[in-house]
Amino acid sequence: MTPPRLFVYGTLQDDELVRRLTGRRLAWRPAVLEGYARAVDPVVGYPVVRPRPGAAVDGRILEDVGPDALAAFDAYEGDEYRRTTVRVRTADGHTIEAYVYIPASAVSAQQPRGVPAGYD
């Protein structure tokens, strides 16, 4: 099952940008992606997350992200990023699955967009 949520940590935290891309406002809540670090990638010039033990990235979970919104986000992120599934911790302490965009260079060239990257 694919999660109807997207963890965002960069430009997609902007409510107005999300509305322009999807045509609607998406509900969101704070969340943390543990085991990753955030940095600006000099190649793409935007924030990226990469695995790093002990690190954590603050961001948001966008809720009720359907296929049309995912297609809009995929187009916005372009070839530099790939969508994969991760586990994030919500402010109330629960751990849930969500999509996240990571640098394409961190994903196997054989893995199609949207397929989980080895998470249990």
Give a description of the structure.
This protein has a 5-stranded antiparallel beta sheet with strand order 1-3-2-4-5, with no helix packed on it. The protein is globular. The longest helix has 11 residues. The chain has a single domain, classed as Gamma-glutamyl cyclotransferase-like (Hypothetical upf0131 protein ytfp). It contains 2 helices and 5 strands; from the N terminus they run E-H-E-E-H-E-E. Helices cover 16% and strands 42% of the residues. With 120 residues, the protein is α+β, with helices and mostly antiparallel strands.
Task: Please describe the topology of this protein.
Layout: E1 6-8, H1 15-22, E2 28-40, E3 47-62, H2 67-77, E4 81-90, E5 95-103
Antiparallel strand pairs: 1-3, 2-3, 2-4, 4-5
| Major sheet summary line | 5 strands, antiparallel
Q: The CATH topology, please?
A: Hypothetical upf0131 protein ytfp
CATH class: Alpha Beta
* Quaternary: single chain
Parts with pLDDT < 50 across at least 5 consecutive residues: 108-120
Helical stretch tally: 2
Topology, number of strands: 5
Using the alpha-carbon principal axes, give the shape: globular
User: What is the CATH homologous superfamily assignment?
Assistant: Gamma-glutamyl cyclotransferase-like
CATH architecture: Roll
Number of domains: 1
Task: Return the structural class.
Answer: alpha+beta
List the keywords.
120 residues, alpha+beta, Hypothetical upf0131 protein ytfp, 5-stranded antiparallel beta sheet, 16% helix, globular
